[in-house]
Each structure stands twice: as structure tokens, then as C-alpha cells.
DNA sequence: TACTATACCGGTATTTGAATGACGGCCGGG
DNA sequence: CCCGGCCGTCATTCAAATACCGGTATAGTA
């Protein structure tokens, strides 16, 4: 085994992360937030919809910064089940 | 351009992140910390040496948890220059 | 009703990198 | 001398990030 495919748990965890980001975005548009965070709108959409379940550390950091979220709190909320 | 190659700034940022993790690990062995975090020793070494400059969010989270580091503080320390 | 614009979604395709494993080498302590 | 720990390199597989397409839903305008 070289690069273990993502487990269902990891995908669920990614979905929760996406939902948290979506919630924090509120009424703002994807394009707006994505541009401010320095990522493409497509990437943000993939993360929010859970199609990119394990985004890069600094990608999440940039989004958290724009959305005014704490990394620790974000992690705690989406890892509560996964541990 | 589809997947912009990592910029030198991003690589430097990754190196700082690695140095911080290395520092926090202290006298503990790589294999020990890696096992506890649920990643391979090779992966931990790559991150510490900066050869994996943009690790996954949950990978960093697992290491931070084992090393007793705050995600926000970790981010602040390695992003001070890159902004 | 029809036209237009915005915002989001699903799928597809592409490139680059993360994550892992394996082998060999180097160094310091038992 | 050997063993633990770390490093470098090579090879492999899967996913992140990006872009483009068409589709849907909603709101505004005429």
C-alpha cells in the first residue's frame, strides 16, 4: 500500500469541515470569499461540498482567516466524531 | 495553468512549519511521534525537512495534537513572514 | 411572458504534490 | 561490532487545486 485511499470516515470529516465553512461564509458569495482567501472559487466549492475532504493546511488557514474562524475551534468541531 | 507549482515563498513557509514541528518534538523519536499521530515516519520527516511544504490540514492537526501545539499559534509562527 | 444576470452545482480533464514504502548511507552509543 | 535514529533518493498511488462545460434556481427588468 502506497497511498491509502480516503476512508469513508475521512470523507465524512471533510464534509463536516465543508459545512462549517459554508455556515461561516453566511450570505457572502463563494467568489468573493475565495478571492479574498487567495484560492479559486472552484476549490472553495469543492471543499465546501466535501469533494476535497482533506484540503491543504494553508488553504484551510487562509479560509479561516477570511471567515474569522479559529483553526483550533474549526478542528475541534469537525473532528469531534472522527477523533 | 492548472495547478500552479509551489512558489519559493510557499516552500520557505513549509520549511518554517517543519522547523517548528521539529523543535516541538524535542528529544522524542520521529517514529514515536509519527506513530502516535497516525502518520508514517517518512511523512513526518518530509514535513520536518520541508520537502512536503503544504501538508494536509488533518495531518498537521494530528501532529499538533501529539506535540501539544495550538493550530493558531503554529500558523501564526510560520506565517509571520509570508503573511 | 421573456430576457438577463448572479450564484451554485455536477461532471470532466489536467497538472502538481502529499503520503507511503524501500534501500542505502552516516553517526553515536552500548 | 551492531543497533537505533536520521537523512537522501527513487518509485508508486491517490488526491488537491485549477479550469471549463452545461444545468438549475432565483431575482431583476422590461
TrEMBL record, chains A, B:
Which SUPFAM superfamilies does the record associate with it? lambda repressor-like DNA-binding domains
Query: One Pfam family of this protein, by short name?
Result: HTH_31
Give the superkingdom in one word.
Bacteria
Signal peptide from the UniProt entry: none
HTH cro/C1-type domain mapped to chain residues = 29-74
State the InterPro entries in the record.
Answer: Cro/C1-type_HTH (IPR001387), Lambda_DNA-bd_dom_sf (IPR010982)
Protein name as catalogued: Helix-turn-helix transcriptional regulator
Amino acid at each position: 500500500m502506497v497511498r491509502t485511499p480516503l476512508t469513508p470516515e475521512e470523507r465524512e470529516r471533510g464534509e463536516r469541515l465543508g459545512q462549517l465553512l459554508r455556515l461561516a461564509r453566511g450570505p457572502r458569495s463563494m467568489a468573493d470569499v475565495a478571492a479574498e482567501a487567495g484560492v479559486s472559487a472552484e476549490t472553495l466549492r469543492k471543499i465546501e461540498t466535501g469533494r476535497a475532504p482533506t484540503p491543504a493546511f494553508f488553504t484551510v488557514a487562509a479560509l479561516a482567516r477570511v471567515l474569522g474562524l479559529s483553526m483550533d475551534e474549526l478542528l475541534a468541531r469537525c473532528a469531534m466524531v472522527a477523533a
